[in-house]
Design goal:
The structure holds two protein chains of two kinds. Chain A is 88% helix and 0% strand. Chain A is mostly helical. Chain A has a single domain, classed as Up-down Bundle (F1FO ATP Synthase), CATH 1.20.20.10. In chain A, helix 1 packs antiparallel against helix 2. The two termini of chain A are 13 Å apart. By secondary structure, chain B is α+β, with helices and mostly antiparallel strands. Chain B folds into two domains: 239 residues, no CATH class; 162 residues, no CATH class. Helix content of chain B is 50%, strand content 14%. Chain B is built from ten helices and twelve strands. In chain B, a hairpin with a 2-residue loop joins strand 1 and strand 2. Chain B is globular and about 75 Å long. The chains are: A mainly alpha, B alpha+beta.
């Protein structure tokens, strides 16, 4: 059963990423529905924020990989 | 012309880096699927080499497929550039107590695994990476090794960290010599640390960086000349391909974030963006050795250090006063909480830049290698060919899907690195606006 604690840790990190990116996407879609002409701005910012949240999750996953 | 010179100098500075650290060197994932033990344990199926102990009594039979180890091997840096079935030896530049050694890695006569059949000046190559024999009793010069199995690995429990470590040993003339890995700059955190030699070779990553630098420089200088030649006319050719991307970064990243002095820092941001993008895309080309430059912590570390230096050298009084002694906050809070946190933030922001790029790219590469490795796992190393064929269909489809995502991630991560660096520089150079 070696290494499974690391896998559980990585899974926990991904829960956070999933929730975060899901919220970003939901709010972005609401914003587009409210103001369709701003779709370019909203899309660019949504992708940027998703990349930042994803970055945090990937840091956690890689630390679980290498250190755990 | 002036901006092109800055661009070239920045690209050149990026590409001359010491490969001082490599995170994936068979260190800590081996306990997951490691089948290797040192007492002649026979495996159930698919092991057509049978038990094989080498002359020093260690078991070097071909073990089952180890996906973790293979993944690490494929994303780590090597001293031989393998493109499919062809192997191009790269120059080795090594420094140790015995001085500088510069030679081509073809002296090792490595087989297709990257394991050498010769040792040279007490250096051997095992699975593509150069190692050093620290024992002085081993002869210098070109020494022929005793064939398959003379270079082997053993897993030992590291006393200090409590984790399994894989060490490479050489069996030669009945003696067992330990082979050191190259020095890493991580201070032992990821299983590295200073060892007996420093590897300054033109490895696969360095070669790729230089190649991409030359390609990018040639492309952009050509485009700049086209602009001058066709002043006032519509863009054409490569100029027309790069111009939308360039103008997009300029209008979305540089102008909004860098403030009114945006022209000064645009070459730096553009260099960052295009270099990272080109290297990300280069690493995605299959069969070109999977040259994983941006997935290498040392490369992203240097980029983050550049961003740190540029941000802090150009910080004006307003910026530093906010970092060190934020106005409008009670002094007690400032000394104990705000200022330490702000100083930590000075270092954490480039650190996250480094880890974000490294994590995204490495994760993508590892997933692709593991998807392909699924074929070998299900085919049980050759025993079950039908399952292997069946799995290959699913694996190829999954890999195609992952590669599409990886293309997107290549663009997004280059964009995010550029935009965050631009926002840090902008925050450092903005004027007070009360």
């Amino acid at each position: 059963m070696t290494g499974s604690l690391a896998a559980i840790g990585a899974g926990l990190a991904v829960i956070g990423a999933g929730i975060g990116i899901g919220m970003i996407g939901a709010r972005a879609m609401e914003a587009i529905a409210r103001q369709p002409e701003a779709v370019g701005d909203i899309r660019a910012n949504m992708i940027l924020m998703a990349a930042l949240v994803e970055g945090a999750a990937l840091i956690a996953i890689l630390l679980a990989f290498f250190v755990g | 012309m002036h901006k092109i010179k800055i661009f070239i100098i920045v690209l050149l500075a990026f590409s001359f880096q010491l490969d001082a650290k490599d995170t994936a060197d068979n260190n800590s994932l081996d306990q997951v699927t490691e089948q290797h033990d040192d007492q002649g344990h026979s495996h159930q199926e698919g092991d057509d080499h049978g038990d094989h102990t080498n002359a020093c009594g260690y078991d070097v039979s071909e073990t089952e497929f180890n996906p973790g180890k293979t993944a690490f091997h494929h994303i780590s840096d090597q001293n031989i550039y393998s493109i499919g079935p062809w192997h191009f030896p790269l120059p080795c530049i090594l420094k140790s107590d015995q001085g500088w050694d510069m030679f081509s890695s073809s002296k090792f006569h490595a087989d297709y695994h990257g394991t050498g059949e010769y040792a040279y000046n007490r250096y051997v190559i095992y699975e593509g990476q150069v190692r050093k024999i620290t024992d002085e009793s081993f002869p210098m010069g070109l020494v022929e090794l005793e064939g398959h199995g003379s270079l082997f690995t053993q897993d030992i429990l590291d006393q200090e960290t409590g984790k399994d470590k894989t060490l490479v040993y050489l069996c030669h003339g009945g003696n067992v010599y330990q082979c050191d890995n190259k020095s890493y700059a991580d201070g032992g955190f990821l299983g590295g640390g200073v060892s007996s030699f420093y590897d300054f070779s033109i490895t696969k990553n360095v070669f790729t960086m230089l190649l991409v630098f030359i390609l990018l420089a040639w492309m952009f200088i050509g485009i700049a000349k086209t602009y001058k030649r066709r002043e006032g006319q519509a863009p054409t050719g490569l100029q027309g391909f790069i111009e939308p991307i360039f103008v997009f970064i300029q209008d979305e990243v540089c102008k909004p974030f860098l403030g009114h002095k945006w022209e000064r820092f645009t070459p730096f941001i553009m260099s960052l963006f295009f270099f990272i993008l080109a290297l990300n895309l280069f690493g995605q080309i299959p069969f070109l050795g999977g040259s994983n430059v941006t997935g290498n912590l040392s490369f992203t570390l240097v980029l983050a250090v550049f961003a740190f230096i540029v941000t802090n050298i150009n910080g004006n009084k307003h910026y530093w006063s906010h970092v060190l002694w934020m106005p409008g906050v009670p002094a007690v809070l400032k000394i104990f909480i705000i200022t330490p946190v702000e100083i930590m933030g000075l270092f954490i922001k480039p650190l996250t830049l480094m880890l974000r790029l490294f994590g995204n790219i490495t994760a993508g590469h590892m997933v692709i290698v593991i998807f392909v490795g699924l074929i070998f796992i299900f085919g049980e190393n050759g025993a079950n060919a039908g399952a292997a064929w069946g799995t290959s269909i699913g694996s190829v489809l999954l890999t195609l899907f992952m590669m599409a995502i990886e293309l997107l991630v290549a663009f997004i991560q280059a964009f995010v690195f550029a935009i965050l660096t631009a926002s840090y520089i902008g925050a450092a150079t903005e004027e007070a606006h009360h």
